[in-house]
Design brief:
Blueprint (H helix, E strand, L loop, with lengths): L31 E2 L4 E3 H4 L6 E7 L16 E15 L2 E5 L4 E4 L6 E16 L19
Antiparallel strand pairs: 1-2, 2-3, 3-7, 4-5, 4-6, 4-7
Amino acid sequence: MCAQIPTLKPGTLEKGSAMTGYRASSIDELPTLWDGFARLVRPGLAIEAFGANIMDLPPDYETKSHDEAESGQQELYVALRGSGAVVVGDERIALDGDHLVCVDAGTPRVLSSGSDGLRVLIVGGVPGGVYEAPEWSSGEQSPG
């Protein structure tokens, strides 16, 4: 039987403690953006190597198209709850508990939720490069 790991609130680790080397949080304790539409995983867990957010899309919702051309990031989409699709051009690629989707920088994409909504983990990084977090992802200001 595995020992139970305590859930930590972001930013509560102390150097030299038994907790050094990892951080954990419930999704509900992560900082939010856009009235709770996005949960900021990267700042919530003090991640520096890559970007990570969780989006909670309501039922039958579509995001605006974006392509990450400016950031150069590849993005990985992992459904945590519900189902939907990543729409690339005319293709709807399933996104659910059995399907993952990775989209390269410069490729326009839209996230689309199904009738049960979609909670999706989005992980981004620059191939062969150093990740630089966009200002909006700190949760301290709105994109704009």
